[in-house]
Every structure is written in C-alpha cells, then in structure tokens.
Amino acid sequence: MRTVRHLYLLRHTKSSWDDPSLPDFERPLAPRGRKAAKLLAGYVERQGIRPQLVLCSPALRARETLARLEHALGAPEVTYDERLYGATESELLERLRAIPASCSSVLLVGHNPGTARLLALLAGAGLPPPAEVPTGALASLSFVTSWLELEPGVASLDAFVVPRELG
Q1: Which residues contact 27 (CB under 8 A, 6 or more apart)?
Q2: Which terminal CB of the chain, N or C, has fewer other CB atoms within 10 Å?
Q3: Cβ contact 37:136 at 8 Å
C-alpha cells in the first residue's frame, strides 16, 4: 500500500506597498494581510493541518505570514529556503522532489506566479485548479507517489480556501 502524501500550498497574505523605497524582498504584511493570516490560522487549526515540514520563502511577507500560522501547525520542522523566492513552478517542483521519503506532509509558503502555476501543474484530479491564486490562498493537495516521483497531474486538489471565505 502506498502512502498518501499531503502538500499544502500557501501564497503569503497581503503585503504592504506603503513604503516604495523598500526592496520587494523586505515588504511586510499589510494590516489586511495580518488579519487574513489570523483567519487562516483558525482554519488550519479546525482542519487539523499538521505538516511535518514547512518550506518557506525568506521574504519578509512570507515569514510574517508563517509566524502568524505557526502556533496552529503543531511543531513542524521549518526551513527558510532562498530558492523559493521568485521560483518558477519547475523550480518549486524540483525542490519538492528533494523532500525525504519519510516525510508525508509539507506546507510550502511562497509567491505568485510560481505557486499558482505549481498548483495548476500538479492538480490533475479532483477539483479543477482555480484560475487565480490570490494572496492568502491555501490549497490542499494529496497524491500517492513519492516526492521524487511527483509529476504534473498526479495530485488531487482536496480544498482551496481564501481568507475572505473564512471571515
């Protein structure tokens, strides 16, 4: 019997554009993004989403999003991976293929367009992938291949939520 693996794709919540002098990498969350992250934390808690591993972009808005969710995630191993910032769907897929076989669930906190394109690439069964992945969107996917064998179309999209649906 093959292990069912779970992949949660989270696009960081809404970031602030208040200070145009800040580099993109250093943009913090906007008040709306902080509120959205709190709503997502409640959803994660209610759904029992407890990834073994969290892969997070080191960009400030991604780290701040994760910080507001972390208490609801249990006690996963967290890795801030510079390769996730600005990554294409192919680069994200390659990163996922490097996850150890012993890991059954992963949360990836990233950015568009890579996150949206990865979702569209992987979700072949179940619900059709959404046309857009707005800030704060959380997609829950499952599949029975190993991480190494992760290929386009092998995952089922089990759930897709955006903060505005949660509160």
Answers
A1: 15, 16, 17, 19, 59, 60, 61
A2: N
A3: yes
Return the closest-CA partner of residue 147 out of 117, 104, 115, 91.
Answer: 104
Residues 6+ apart with CB under 8 A from 130: 119, 137, 160
Task: Tally the residues of the chain.
Answer: 167
Within 10 angstroms of residue 10's Cβ, the number of other Cβ atoms is 27
- Given a contact cutoff of 8 angstroms between Cβ atoms, the answer to whether 43 and 166 are in contact is yes
Residue located via tokens 């996963």: 76
> Which are the contacts of 97, defined by CB distance < 8 A and separation ≥ 6?
147, 148, 150
- Cα 140 to Cα 134: distance, rounded to the nearest angstrom: 15
What is the CATH topology of the domain spanning 5-166?
Rossmann fold (3.40.50)
Return the domain boundaries, the chain. Answer: 5-166
Which residues lie across from 155 on neighbouring strands? Answer: 123
Q: In whole angstroms, what is the distance from residue 89 CA to residue 84 CA?
A: 10
- The pTM of this model reads 0.94
